[in-house]
């Protein structure tokens, strides 16, 4: 059977998601990019992928904090491009605050985008994967899916939940040619961390660059950021036939953070 290998990467207009999309395109996979940019901006990005990599690329706009928007997005992809058989759940947001002052609306939004969205995209993509007897689900968790940090209750809860859901998904689908895995990055220089770096710099009366290095050294022995492109290359490997027996795992790419 000719396997369709069309990848949806949520949150793929910047940061880790964009790097993953580029690596999948380099490997020859057709793509669906997702973000909150306008349709014209997203279409321009998709066109740049087509020109640079020579792969079919579609852009979809959707607020994945809302179930109905996810359902509309998946239906649009099916109609315009066909079924998704490589699903990379990468979309995420962050907010830091002590539990007693953590805004409930922030908690709900983080859980919705960082955890529930991955459930909904998975449940909607799995039937096509089962039909063709092949598929890959890769959830971008975090080192915070494996360990905790202060002031990140919602993020840590969502990322731990993502690790648990991935294990169940892997168990349910292992006999059908479908794998499910988590990647757990440590410090990665992306827009998601900008506010944390700024806060650290202010609290410690240091420059922004010094703050970045200070935060890295506080957690991990590896003295630099994890490259988003390296995360993308790990995604490409997990999508390959060489990884067909790798399922239900949570792979740190964290500079030794979780080795402590």
Question: How would you sum up this structure, described in words?
Answer:
- The protein has 260 residues and is an alpha/beta fold.
- The protein folds into 2 domains: 6-186 and 226-254, Rossmann fold; 190-224.
- It has 8 helices and 7 strands.
- The longest helix has 29 residues, at 104-132.
CATH topology of the largest domain: Rossmann fold
What is the makeup of the main sheet?
A: 7 strands, parallel
Q: In whole angstroms, how far apart are the ends?
A: 46 Å
Number of H- or I-type helical stretches: 8
Q: Which structural category do the helix and sheet elements fall into?
A: alpha/beta
Total discrete domains = 2
Which of globular, elongated, flat, extended, rod-shaped describes the shape? globular
Annotated CATH homologous superfamily of the largest domain: NAD(P)-binding Rossmann-like Domain
Strand content: 5-15%
Instruction: Give the H and E element order.
Output: EHEHEHEHEHEHHHE
Q: Tell me the radius of gyration.
A: 18 Å
Index terms:
260 residues; 14% strand; 8 helices; Rossmann fold; 7-stranded parallel beta sheet; single chain
Question: Nutshell version of this structure?
Answer:
With 260 residues, this protein is of the alpha/beta class. 48% of the residues lie in helices and 14% in strands.
Q: Strands, helices and their partners?
A:
Elements: E1 6-9, H1 15-26, E2 30-35, H2 39-53, E3 57-61, H3 67-80, E4 86-89, H4 104-132, E5 135-140, H5 153-173, E6 178-185, H6 194-204, H7 208-219, H8 228-238, E7 250-253
Parallel strand pairs: 1-2, 1-4, 2-3, 4-5, 5-6, 6-7
Helix pairs in contact: 1-8, 3-4, 4-5, 6-7
């Amino acid at each position: 059977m000719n396997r369709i290998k069309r990848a949806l990467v949520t949150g793929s207009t910047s940061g880790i998601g964009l790097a993953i999309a580029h690596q999948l395109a380099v490997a020859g996979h057709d793509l669906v990019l997702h973000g909150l940019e306008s349709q014209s901006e997203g279409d321009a990005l998709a066109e740049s992928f087509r020109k640079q990599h020579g792969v079919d690329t579609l852009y979809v706009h959707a607020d994945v904090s809302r179930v109905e928007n996810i359902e509309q997005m998946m239906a649009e992809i099916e109609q315009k491009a066909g079924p998704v058989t490589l699903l990379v759940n990468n979309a995420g947001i962050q907010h830091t605050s002590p539990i007693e002052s953590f805004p409930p609306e922030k908690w709900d939004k983080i859980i919705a985008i960082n955890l529930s969205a991955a459930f909904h995209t998975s449940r909607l993509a799995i039937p096509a994967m089962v039909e063709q007897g092949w598929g890959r689900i890769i959830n971008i968790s975090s080192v915070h899916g494996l360990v905790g940090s202060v002031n990140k209750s919602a993020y840590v809860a969502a990322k731990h939940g993502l690790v648990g859901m991935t294990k169940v998904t892997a168990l349910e689908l292992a006999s059908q040619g479908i794998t499910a895995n988590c990647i757990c990055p440590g410090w990665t220089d992306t827009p998601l961390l900008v506010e944390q770096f700024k806060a650290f710099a202010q609290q410690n009366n240091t420059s922004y660059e010094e703050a970045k290095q200070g935060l890295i050294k506080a957690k991990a022995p590896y003295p630099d950021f994890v490259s988003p492109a390296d995360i993308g290359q790990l995604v490409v490997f997990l999508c390959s036939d060489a990884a067909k027996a790798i399922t239900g795992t949570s792979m740190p790419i964290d500079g030794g953070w979780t080795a402590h």
